[in-house]
Amino acid sequence: MIGYRKAGPGDAEAIALLHVRSWRGSYRGSFSDAFLDEEQPGERLRVWHERLGDPSDNQLVQLAVDDGSLAGFVCVYGDEDPQWGSFVDNLHVARAAKRSGIGTSLMRQAGAWLCRRSSDLGVYLWVLEANAPARRFYERIGAHDAGATTMEAHGGATVRSCRYVWRDARALSGE
Predict the structure, then answer these.
(1) Cα angle for residues 80, 85, 91 (degrees, 5° grid)
(2) pLDDT tens for each residue of 24-62
(3) Beta bridge partners of 150
(4) Which residues contact 70 (CB under 8 A, 6 or more apart)?
(5) Count of the separate structural domains present in the chain
(6) Three-state SS for 93?
(7) Backbone angles phi, psi at 118, to 5 degrees
(8) 106 lies in which domain range?
(9) Which residues contact 63 (CB under 8 A, 6 or more apart)?
(10) What is the pTM of this model?
């Protein structure tokens, strides 16, 4: 049975590990192998220790836990950008748990949390243009593609990324 809860400092290693596995499965060929295999594990561990050790007031990291194992997580920042609104920085679901509704549930929970903070603001995220499964997922839950741009990503990779947007937090929450 899947349970949901807010992340704490003790969750940093599990989150970093899922994050690494997810990027290796989705971004191979977009990011360098050296980054994914050698640099990313330590880099993600540092990021998650920092985010959970000293969280900003506008940050939510929500977990999906299945029988004690991390099945997925979402990380959002409320009111992050003056033009685009709140930012979904991460959504990752373990490969074995994909297509089970966890990703949708995490995104809806993030939307509900954002509604309590600033419901009239837009919500956005970046997704690699090459990541067609993720793009289809975001479209299924109500986002639309607001355009692609070339940007420098982790490990020095140059990638095409699409900005996906919801008109406001209520649209993301499914209300």
Answers:
(1) 75
(2) 888 777 777 787 788 778 889 999 999 999 999 999 999
(3) 160
(4) 11, 14, 15, 17, 18, 63, 64, 94
(5) 1
(6) strand
(7) -160, 75
(8) 2-173
(9) 4, 5, 6, 7, 11, 15, 70, 72, 73
(10) 0.93
